[in-house]
Specification:
The complex is a heterodimer of chains A (about 375) and B (about 500). With about 375 residues, chain A is an alpha/beta fold. Chain A has helices at about 10-35, 35-40, 45, 70-75, 115-125, 160-175, 220-240, 260-265, 275-285, 310-325, 340-350, 370-375; strands at about 55-60, 75-80, 105-115, 140-150, 190-200, 205-210, 245-250, 255, 295-300, 330-335, 355-360. Chain A has a 6-stranded mixed beta sheet with strand order 8-7-6-9-10-11, sandwiched between helices. Chain A has a two-stranded antiparallel ribbon with strand order 1-3. With about 500 residues, chain B is of the alpha+beta class. Chain B is built from 22 helices and 10 strands. Classes of the chains: A alpha/beta (about 375), B alpha+beta (about 500).
Chain lengths: ~375, ~500
Amino acid sequence: MGATKRKVAPKEFCLAIKEDQARFRDIIRGRIKENFKKYVTHGEMVDKRENDFVKIPVPSIDIPRFKYGSKQRGGVGQGQGQPGDAMDGQPSEQGAGEAGNNEGQHQIEAEISMEELADILGEELELPRIEPKGKPRQDAEKNKYTGIAPVGPQGLRHFKHSYKQALKRYISSGTYTPDTPVIVPIKADMRYRSFKTKNVPQANAVVIYMMDVSGSMGEEQKEIVRLESFWINTWLKKHYKGLETRFIIHDATAKEVDEKTFFSTSESGGTLISSAYKLCQQMIETEYPTNDWNIYPFHFSDGDNWSGEDTRLCMKLLTEFFLPNVNMFGYGQVESKYGSGQFLKDLEREFPSDDRLVMSKIESRDKILDSIKDFLGKGK
Amino acid sequence: MANLTPELEKARQKILKIAESYGLDCFETVFELITYDQINQFAAYGGFPVRYPHWRFGMEYEQLSKSYEYGLSKIYEMVINTDPCYAYLMEGNRMVDQKLVMAHVFGHCDFFKNNQWFSPTNRKMMDQMANHATRIRRYMDRYGVDEVENFIDKVLSLENLIDRHAPYRKKSSEKASSGVKAAELALLNVNRDYMDEYINPPDFVRHQKEKAAIEAQKMAKFPHEPQRDVLEFLMHNAPLKNWQQDVVSIIRDEAYYFAPQGMTKIMNEGWASYWHAKMMTQNIMNDSEVIDFCDAHSGTMAMQPGGFNPYKVGIELFREIEDRWDKGRFGKEWNECDDIHAKQHWDKKTGAGRDKIFEVRRNYNDVTFLDEYLTEDFCVRNKMFVYKFNKRTNRFEIDTRDFPLVKKQLLFQLTNFGQPIIQVENANFENRGELLLTHLYEGVEMQPDYTKETLKNLQALWTRPVNLATVIEGEGKLIRFDGQDFKEFSLSPQEPSSQASGAD
C-alpha cells in the first residue's frame, strides 16, 4: 500500500514531540511553583545539586491507576539465592505482564536546570533583573572546538572527516570496491577536532559569604544560611555566568575556607565581626579590582559582637570601603536563642536609608523566602 | 522502499529470504533508518509517528533521551503491528546489530500476522492513530488545550479498565434478550384446566416463581450483569459531552489495540529471539561478527538479579518445546514414566519440534503458554523463584522455589496484565444514582493512594458519588468518594461484592 509510504519524521512531527515535552516541563514547573516554599525551606534540593542541574522530587506526576500494591504483590524472579535471602537489587516495577507500560514510581525526580530554577525563583518573588554595574566588561577567553586539524590526540579524532579522507584516497587510487566497502584509514587520513579561541564578553562577579561560627550559631542557624546562600547563588548565577564564590568564617579571627568547611565548622571563641570585614576587604583589594568586578559580600551572624568598639570599626569599614565599592552588602541576622541581635540594631541606627546595605532578619526557616526577597529585591 | 543504504537493503533481502525458507510468514515489512533522536520520539509515541498531543509522551521522550545520552539504555529495535509492518533501524549501529534487528523483526512480524490473539487487531492503526490525533487537536482548538488535556488525564487513569477478552467473544446483546422475561413465568402449556396441577405441580410453580424473582431483581439492576469494560460503560452511561465521549472512545480503542501485545509479550519476544538467534548463527553472520553478535544477544537475554526477562523465558521455552517434540517427550507415556534415567535419554526421534512451535505461536497467549508448557525442569534450570516483601526486614526476599507456587505466581502476574480485575456492579447504587465498582479480590490488595486518586478521576466523569468494594488490610471495605471526601465502610470479609450490591 503505497499510500502509507512516508518520509521519515516530517518537520511537524518533530515539533509535536517537542510540544509534548514542553507541556510536560510546564507541568513540572507548575508543581515546583506550587510547592516552592516547601522546596526553599527544605534542604533536599540543595543536596541534589549537580553542576548545572538540580534534582527535585515531584509528587505524583504519573497517571494514577487501580493497581496492586507492589509490596503486597511480590513476583517471580530469576537468579541465585536461598529462600529468606534478600533479593539483589529492587524487583523491577515492570513485571512480566505489564509489557510496555512503565508503571513508574510515585515520585519522580525531575531534573531542572539552574537557569530554570532561577527563573522560577524570580517569578515567585517578583525579583527585578540585576543591572550589572556600568563597569567595562571583561573579555573571557573561551575555547570552542570548531576546527579540524591533521594532528591531535586520539580522544578528539573526527570519524567523519577521517573516513572521508580515507574514502577519497581509496577512490582516487582505484582500490574502492562498492561490494565490500571496507575502508581502512592510515595515519595520513586521520583528522582531529581542534579549538579556536574566542573572546566572550562577560560581566565578572564575586559573592563573598562571611559567617559567624562562634558558639551561639547552632546547626539550625547554619542550615538557614546554607539554604539562603544556595538561592542567592542561583539567582546571581543567572545574571553572571562566571560567578565566583568565596567563603570566610570568623569568630574572634577570620579565615578563608572552602564551601564544605564553611557550613560544617563550629568554633567556640568570641566574636569580632571586624576581623571578617578586614579579611574581606583585603580579598577584594588584592583579587577583585572594583572597577572590573560586581561584588556581593554577604554577612550572616546572630547579631552578637564582642564590643561596641569593634562594632564602630565595622561601621567605619562599611562607610569607607564597602559601600562605595560593592554592588550591595547583605547582612542577614539569623535569630538564635543566645544572640542579642544587637548588631542589626546598630546597623539600622547607623545607616537608616542606604540602599547599598541590605539588612534582613531571619527568624526561622519559614522566613527564608522573605529574606531572599529582601536581599535580591533591589535589583542590585 | 524505504531509505536503506544499498548494503542494508541487500542484507534485508537476504534475511527475508532466509526467514521465508524457515516458514516465517510476514506482512510486507518496511524498514526505515532513523537517528537515535527520532527513535526516541517514535518510542515515546508507542512506535507510531503521530499520536494525539499529551504531556506523558513528552515525559517518556525526555526519559528515553536522557537515558540514551547518559549511555544507560538504547533502543535496538522497534516494530509496529500494522500491515505493512513498519520497523526502525538506528543509524550508526554496527552492521551486525542491524542484521540482528532485521532477523528479530521478521520474527515479530510473523507473530503479529499469525498469532490468533492479534486477529481482531486493526492493521491500519497507523491511520487510525493519526485520525485520533486530528480529532483531539480539533477538540483542543475548540474547547481549549487545558480542558481537553485534563479530561484525557482522567480517562487515562481508567485506561486499564477494559475487558481484554471482549474482542474474542461474540457480542453478548442477543444473549440478554433470549433470557427469561422477568414478569412471565416459564410454565408449561396446558390445554385442559384439570391437568394443570399435574403438568405444573406446585413445587415446579414455586421454583419457577423464585427463578423469575431472581431474574427480575437482576433486570432491575443496571447493568444487569457486572461489566468489565468500565470505559465502554462510562462512554454510554456517564453524563459526557459529545467530544468527551469521543475522547473516551479514542483512548479505549488505543487500549484495545495495545492489549494483545501485552498478552503475548513473553511469547512474542521469545519467538523473535528464537528466530534471530537461529538465523544469525546458522545463516547470516560472518566470522568477524561472531563476538559482537554474542555480546548483543547475551545482553538481551541477561537476567537482572531478581528480575524477570521475558526474552529469556520466552526463547528458552520455545527451545524446550522444540526439543521435547523432537524427542517425543510428551503424551501419556512420557508423563507416566518414573524412571529418571529413561527420561534423561528419552528420544523417540519424532522430529515434530518445528511444527509444534509454529502451532504454539499460532494458538497461545502468555497465560496459556506458560500454563501448558512451563515445567518444573525449566523452573529449576532457569533458577526461578517467588519473591515477597518482608515487612519485618523491610526488604524483598526470596520466598520459595517450589514449582507450583512459582507457576501460580507467574500466572497470577500475567492474568489481566497483573492488574486488579474491576467491574461495574451497579450504576444506581443505594438507589441514588451512585456508581458501584467491585474489585474481584484474589488475595492481593490494591495500592491505596493510587486507588483514591483514580476514584477521584472516576467521580469526575460520573459526577455522582462513586463507590469501590475492595479489601483493605484483610477486611472487606467500601470506599466512597462523593467529590469532596472519602468515606470507608466495612463490608463482611467473605464476600465484599455481594454484600455491597445486596445493600440496595
